[in-house]
C-alpha cells in the first residue's frame, strides 16, 4: 500500500497562492538551510528543469516515485514549453479537457480519478505518491490523502487559492512532526486521523 501525500507550500493563512494560484513570493524563503532540507529530504519534489541547473538531477528519489497534478498546475510548466516537468517520477495529470497527452511520459487521468488513485495506492512496493495540487485536485482527493506535508512560509496573503478547493468537510489529521527553519519557514507533517 502506497501513501498519497499532499506536499504543499502555503502562507500563514493557508493559501497556496494568490487568487490566481501564484506562489512565487514564497521562493524568497528558499535559502541555504531550507534548500538543504528540500534536497536532503524531498529531492524529487523539485521539478526536473529546476534540478539540472542546480546540479542535483542525479539525486535519487527518496519518498515518492509517482506524481499527480491537476491540469491547471501542469499548465504552469506547459506554458513554458515543458511537457514533462517531473521526468524523474511517474507522471499523472488529471484532465477532462486534454484530449491527448502532450508528452509520452505523462499519463492523463480523464475518468474515475478516485478509482485510479486507489489503484495506484494499492500497488505493491515502491515509494509514495506525491499529490502536487492544485487546490481543486486536492479538494477532490481529500478523502484519499494519507499524509500532509505543509510548508508554511511566514507571509499572510489575506485571500487567495485555498489549500483544498472543496466544500466544508471536517477531516482529522494527527501531527507527526514539525521542523522550523531560521528564516521562519515551518514544515508540519500530519498523518490522517483514523
Ligand atoms: N503552493 C503550492 O504548493 C502549489 C502546488 C501546486 C499548485 N499550485 C498552484 O495551484 C494552481 C492551480 O490550482 P487549481 O485548483 O486552479 O487547479 P488544479 O487542481 O491544478 O487543476 C484543476 C484541473 O484538474 C482537472 N481535474 C480536476 N478534477 C478532475 C477529475 N475528477 N477528473 C479529471 N480531471 C480533473 C481539471 O482539468 P480540465 O479543466 O483539463 O478538465 C481541472 O480544471 C496553480 O496556479 C499552481 O501554481 C500551488
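^ C-alpha cells above, recovered residues below v
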Amino acid at each position: 500500500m502506497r501513501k498519497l501525500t499532499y506536499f504543499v507550500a502555503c502562507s500563514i493563512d493557508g493559501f497556496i497562492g494568490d487568487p490566481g494560484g501564484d506562489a512565487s513570493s514564497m521562493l524568497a524563503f528558499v535559502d541555504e538551510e531550507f534548500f538543504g532540507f528540500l534536497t536532503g529530504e524531498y529531492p524529487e519534489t523539485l521539478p526536473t528543469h529546476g534540478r539540472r541547473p542546480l546540479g542535483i538531477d542525479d539525486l535519487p528519489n527518496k519518498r515518492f516515485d509517482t506524481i499527480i497534478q491537476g491540469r491547471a498546475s501542469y499548465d504552469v510548466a506547459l506554458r513554458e514549453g515543458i511537457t514533462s516537468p517531473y521526468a524523474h517520477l511517474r507522471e499523472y495529470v488529471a484532465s477532462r479537457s486534454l484530449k491527448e497527452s502532450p508528452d509520452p511520459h505523462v499519463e492523463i487521468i480523464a475518468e474515475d480519478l478516485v478509482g485510479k488513485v486507489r489503484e495506484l495506492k494499492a500497488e505493491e512496493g515502491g515509494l509514495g505518491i506525491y499529490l502536487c495540487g492544485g487546490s481543486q485536485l486536492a479538494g477532490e482527493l481529500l478523502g484519499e490523502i494519507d499524509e500532509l506535508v505543509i510548508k508554511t512560509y511566514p507571509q499572510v496573503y489575506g485571500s487567495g487559492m485555498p489549500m483544498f478547493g472543496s466544500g466544508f468537510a471536517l477531516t482529522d489529521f494527527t501531527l507527526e512532526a514539525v521542523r522550523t527553519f531560521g528564516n521562519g519557514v515551518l514544515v508540519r507533517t500530519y498523518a490522517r486521523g483514523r
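The chain is about 20% helix and 30% strand.
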